[in-house]
Every structure is written in C-alpha cells, then in structure tokens.
TrEMBL record:
InterPro entries: PPC_dom. Residues 6-123 form the PPC domain. It comes from Fimbriimonas ginsengisoli Gsoil 348. The lineage of its organism: Bacteria, Bacillati, Armatimonadota, Fimbriimonadia, Fimbriimonadales. This is PPC domain-containing protein. SUPFAM superfamilies: AF0104/ALDC/Ptd012-like (SSF117856). CDD domains: DUF296.
Length: 123
C-alpha cells in the first residue's frame, strides 16, 4: 500500500501473506517510505512466533516459542528511529492451540495465511 501524505494522521498498511516475517516486513516498509515515527496494529495469525519478556535480573529477554496456528488476540506497537536506525517494537496477546494465551514482546512472527497491518504515522 502506498502512503497518502496529507498531514497529521497519515495512514498506510501492509498485507502480508504466508511465510513473511512481520517485524522485518514492517521495518522494510518504514525504511522504504521514510517513516520515522508511527503506531501500528495488526490482525491475523502466525504459523509460529516467539514471544518474550524482559528479565531485569538476567538483563535479557526470556523467549517462548509458540507453534501454530497462533491467533493474534491483540497486537500493538510502534516504529521509531534512534541514531538514524529504524526500530520496530510490538507487544501482543496470542493464543495457541488449546486456547492458552501468552503475552509479551513479539520477537518474531511468521505469517500463517494473511496478516493485515495498519500503520498510523505521527508527525
């Protein structure tokens, strides 16, 4: 999708299909369209994903691998730039087979069939 730049509140989006990795696709889109600050949401499912939480004691992320299908219950994040480098941070709640939910930082997510991403650009 292309961006219509008309002022504050510009929107863009992505439609990702099976096999694409969400974080890298959003980062590539942000770099290509020079998006330096934005908020995002998404709907869809992953075939697999890694969700993490930050351990202050260990000073690192503790990751949990979820095998699919993994439904996205809610997903929100942001795009930012630090020292000229584009960063994407996404948090979410996910449900794996059996209905158990996991929440945390999305560390990676491979699209199962189709995933819709909505991006609201901040100016």
């Amino acid at each position: 999708m292309e961006i219509e730049r008309s002022g504050p509140g510009d929107r863009t989006g992505l439609v990702l299909f099976a096999g694409k990795e969400l974080l890298s696709a959003v980062r590539e889109h942000a770099v290509r369209h020079r998006i330096s600050e934005a908020r995002l949401t998404a709907q869809g499912a992953f075939s697999e994903c890694v969700v993490g939480w930050y351990s202050f004691e260990q000073k690192q992320f503790v990751d949990t691998q979820l095998e699919g299908p993994v439904a996205i219950v809610t997903l929100a994040g942001y795009i930012s730039q630090r020292s000229g480098i584009t960063h994407v941070a996404i948090h979410g709640v996910f449900t794996a087979p059996g209905g158990n939910c996991r929440a945390g930082h999305l560390r990676s997510g491979i699209v199962r069939s189709k995933l819709l991403v909505s991006i609201s650009i901040d100016h």
